[in-house]
Specification:
Layout: E1 2-7, E2 10-15, E3 19-23, E4 33-36, E5 39-44, E6 47-50, E7 59-80, E8 85-104
Antiparallel strand pairs: 1-2, 1-5, 3-8, 4-7, 5-6, 7-8
Length: 105
Amino acid sequence: MYAIVEIQGQQFKAEEGKKLFVHHIKDVEAGKTVEFDKVLLVDADGAVKVGAPTVDGAKVVCEVVNPLVKGDKVIVFKMKRRKDSRSRNGHREQFTEVVIKSVIA
């Protein structure tokens, strides 16, 4: 059984026991549970339910493993030719690590 769930504007395939890195969720602590109810699709052993836009009564229950994980460094480099104009910036994305506990349909 799996579900397609929208978390912080991104869609993820949620299966029980799977580890996900989602955009940083504020005000959560390690070990706490978080529920996401924006479930777009549920597949229960071949029986597919597609929401319009969401499936009624379906939710995904997750446990927060690590509330703040920094991703790899991303370099943003901009250059305009023949103008001696260059800028180099970088940042590290912030994620929250969650483990899927159950998919309720």
